[in-house]
């Protein structure tokens, strides 16, 4: 046994415990498959629907915070945005395309099923003016800042 390899599983479990909940599930599945194998090659893959978390970008300007979530192949009516106790939650579902039966698929790498992302917001957000727009598979949530939180220029006077 090479030096340090005995602790590799412990490092993987430590990483698992610090990961986001949905990433933790993916990591656990990978660890189990690595430890016990995939049951040998059968020419079939697991086509079960998975819980997934869409990728998000969050950026801030002087007057707002913007959250953009990638939701390809998700319909607007299957997306829900809520705000409670300064926590922004984006949830919904990407449904499996029923025109082709799952049994006829050879490979399914995209995730389907319910998704959920939550973000704690700073108290500077004006929760009464939050807006959301869904276009081309991108959800854009705009969170304006309160007036008192926006930077103010202070004029320097000559004495």
Summarize the model shown.
This protein has helices spanning 8-18, 21-36, and strands at 56-60, 64-70, 79-84, 87-94, 113-120, 131-135, 138-144. The protein is of the alpha+beta class and 159 residues long.
Key traits:
three-stranded antiparallel beta sheet, alpha+beta, 2 domains, Immunoglobulin-like, four-stranded antiparallel beta sheet, single chain, 159 residues, 2 helices
Query: Could you name the CATH topology of the largest domain?
Result: Immunoglobulin-like
Whole-Å distance between the termini? Answer: 76 Å
> Uncertain regions: pLDDT < 50 for 5+ in a row?
38-50
Q: What's the tally of helices?
A: 2
Mean pLDDT: 77
CATH architecture verdict of the largest domain: Sandwich
Rough outline: elongated
**Strand order, largest beta sheet:** 1-2-7-6
User: What is the highest CATH level, the class of the largest domain?
Assistant: Mainly Beta
Q: Helicity range of the residues?
A: 10-25%
**What proportion of the residues form beta strands (DSSP E)?**
25-35%
H-E order: HHEEEEEEE
Number of strands: 7
> How many structurally independent domains?
2
